[in-house]
Each structure stands twice: as structure tokens, then as C-alpha cells.
Amino acid sequence: MSDIFGLLGAIFSSACAMVGLPNQIFKNYKNQNCKGLSFWLAFFAFFSHSSWIGYGLSKPDIFLCISQIPGSIFMMIILIQFWMYKNRKQKKTKGLS
Prior knowledge:
The chain has 3 helices and no strands. It is mainly alpha-helical. It has one domain (2-96): Monooxygenase (Up-down Bundle), CATH 1.20.1280.290. Helix 1 runs parallel beside helix 3 (62-96) and helix 2 (39-58) runs antiparallel to helix 3 (62-96). The longest helix is centred in the C-terminal third of the chain and has 35 residues, at 62-96. The chain is elongated and about 65 Å long. The mean pLDDT is 85.
């Protein structure tokens, strides 16, 4: 019975991450910035997902690990976007002065 609930929880958690986060990644890419998105939210969300993966590995709970992997990957991509678009903004600013 707990395997069924674990599977359903993993599916629901993965579905939420696979619907919401790619839309944010696409929006950031389209606008070439991360305006309106908190860096610290993305930073702590990434480490939260990663910590849950580590906890799932220590149990071992495969459902917990699998459900957190998409969120961790997508949040890492958003953190990379923060870094990329910050560097792009700095280069434009240096070019204007």
C-alpha cells in the first residue's frame, strides 16, 4: 500500500516540476533575463531538491529520489540562466561606457 502512495506521490511531484519549471526556463530564455525571479529562491530550491535526493538515497527510497530529480535539474538550469544573463548584462553595460 505504501508503494502505491509513494508511486503516486512521485508521479505528482515530477509532474508539477515538469509543468511549471520548464515554462519559467522558456520565459527566461525568451526575455534573455531572469527579471522578477528571486535568485535566492532558485538557489535554495535547488539545494532543497538536492538534499531530498540525498535523503532518499540514504533510506533507500527510490520514489523520493526520482521525484526530486526533475526539480533539481530544472532549478540548476535556472541558476545557470541567472549566471549567463548576469554576465550578458555586465558585458552590455561595459560596452556602453
